[in-house]
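Usage

Read records sequentially. Each one opens with the input sequence:
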Amino acid sequence: MKNLRTCTRQSIIPGKIMDNADYSKNPGESLSYLEEAQIQMKKRPKLSIVLRLTVAFLICFVISLGSALIIILTIHNVKNNYYFIETIHSYSLNLQKGRVYEKNYFLHQRNLADAIAYSSHAKEILDSEKQSFVSFDDEDDYLTMKEHHEKYHQLLIRLSKKPFDASVELYEQEINQSATALSRYVDEFRHKGRESIHDRLTLLQVVPVVLSLLLAVFLMLLAIFITTQMLWSLQRKVATAQRIAEGDLTPFVSTRKYYDEFSELSFALNEMIQQLASRQEMLIKFHKLRAIGTLTAGIAHELNNPLNNIVLTASMFKEDYRELDEEEKIEMLDDLVGESERTQKIVRNLLDYTRETELETRSVSVETILENTLRLLNNQIRMNKVKVQHDAENLPSIHADQKQLTQVFINLILNALDAMPSGGTLRISAKSSALRDSIAVRFEDDGVGIPAEKLETIFDPFITTKKEGEGTGLGLSVCKSILENHGGTISVVSVLKQGSTFTVDLPTSMIPAKLDDHKADSWQKPSGVQ
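and closes with the structure output:
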């Protein structure tokens, strides 16, 4: 897992771009930049997302309310216009009936009283609906119309008091002039009322469409805002959480223009990252101390047994030297040599584990290494009554150290033989994966298996499942170290009393991941490699 000092990403701080070299060289300086950026962020204008969303929904409400009010007012004006037209119609009807009786009077000298009555009704309508006329049109037109009607009405009254003679023709002319003027005003008012209704109805059709388009545009802008300001920020936080889960503890730096809830979330994430980094460092130190303790205890335990045997055998040899015959002396000396060789083997294995052996890499064939290894161990395989099933064909070449890979395969095969003391079947298969650019070599036995509690530590030094004195517990550790130097991995799956499967993954890249820089620079590519 990567920690704060080994991250490989870039963090963008407002006004400054820091790459990960800065983190690895001086993490304290990078954190100070982060803290400074957070302080600057807190000084920015506070504009919470809740407030912005509230304002947005208020604007939507205002637009909807404005649309409703405009429609209500327009409908109210249409109703008023209809009422005004009805008023004009009622006035015109009374005026027309009065004129009919007026014509009868001039033709037949009768019904003048009826003409005066209808004129009075029209005058009452004109007086009672003054506000309607004034609110609809200019007050001057209303007053002029009222003057003409008053003149028309007075002419009718004066005509009723006068005997019918030759002077009636003069009254008739004046009455016609006033009535004609009134008809003209009625037509104008009626025309204006109809035009006003038409305009209001057109407005009722246009306003909802315009306001709906305006609301749609605003909602689209709101959706864009939510997508860019919220969902995008959430996606960044999700990506940061996934990055943290993968072990990348690079601090998260907010680039928002305003201080809002996501800024606070960024601060909380950074606080969590700092806590994780701190605790990870503590865990690393703890595991280092634990590994040192395990290594020290293993060395002491492994060396203590042969050294005790050497001391006891040497002491007995010294005390009983004169009483021992030559055969017993040689036997005790053989024991001393055997225990010394055992001690030497433990030290050599320990050196192989701790020493960074220089890789002698070249293009090798995994198939060839497996065949040579099986040929080398053929006698031991037959003595253990183990049947080997070998399947490895058409594998690409890899760039590796042949001796070290042979050592890995020998250790794994010998472990499999030890796990099958009564014989069994060892299945060895090797397959290439173009998707992963690697070769997977599997060693599957049907032996005693490995206890579940030892699977997690099986690759640690001095961890062994064999009986005391039969193994050093360094074989799998050495295998893991060699494979890591080649950029590969080793894993195990085991079921107790059913067997174990060790899988070795080797990259097919031309240069191992841990090859020294100077060797990588001096290495010449094979012909045809671009």
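Summary fields computed downstream for this record:
- Residues 66-218 form a domain with the Four Helix Bundle (Hemerythrin (Met), subunit A) fold (CATH 1.20.120).
- The radius of gyration is 53 Å.
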